[in-house]
Design goal:
The chain is an alpha/beta fold. It has 2 helices and 16 strands. Helix 1 runs parallel beside helix 2. The protein starts with a helix and ends in a 7-residue tail after the last strand.
Length: 174
């Protein structure tokens, strides 16, 4: 029965983005119903929570985790977003890759994409602004606003604006 349900889910989501075993079948069926049947985020080929909003999903490069599956996520990928392996995004985060010109709000500024390197974790309610690059194994504390890059890696950053709080040991994978 479980294999039959996984086959059904593959019909809803593009296999590259399907999170095998990471989320419960019940959760994925609920998301598939709201996304593909009711139409919330219908065009996006991976599971997205119905309370999340993703702009320009085609400019998102990701390897493992589906982007926007957590509740209340806002992602503006007009300048691009690159997420490497094992990047965890908490609920109610914002990744904003596009900004307005401060002298003419109808003009958008071309920026570098947001890049989040592997084994990183973005805490609940965090905001990451255009052009930011986070190094490997960077943890962003809940509610932080990241306005500049932290390329070094192995660090915990937090605050508004975010700053380095603590250096971390190398990430230990399973």
């Amino acid at each position: 029965m479980k294999h039959l349900i996984y086959l059904l889910l593959k019909a809803f989501f593009y296999p590259k983005y399907y999170p095998y075993g990471y989320y419960s079948i019940k959760t994925l069926l609920r998301i598939a119903f709201k996304q593909k049947i009711l139409g919330y985020n219908r065009k996006i080929p991976w599971p997205v929570h119905y309370t999340s909003y993703i702009k320009n999903y085609k400019n998102i490069q990701t390897t493992t985790e589906p982007v926007g599956i957590a509740m209340g996520t806002y992602i503006d990928a007009r300048n691009g977003i690159i997420l490497e392996e094992n990047v965890n995004l908490g609920p109610k985060i914002s990744l904003i890759s596009m900004n307005h010109d401060s002298n003419n709000y109808s003009i958008f500024i071309k920026e570098e994409p947001i890049i989040i390197r592997k084994n990183s974790w973005i805490g609940t309610g965090s905001i990451i602004l255009p052009g930011v690059e986070l190094g490997e194994h960077t943890i962003v504390g809940a509610g932080s606003v990241v306005t500049k890059s932290f390329k070094e890696g192995n660090q915990l950053i937090a605050g508004n604006p975010a700053k380095v709080i603590k250096q971390l040991e190398n990430y230990k994978s399973d």
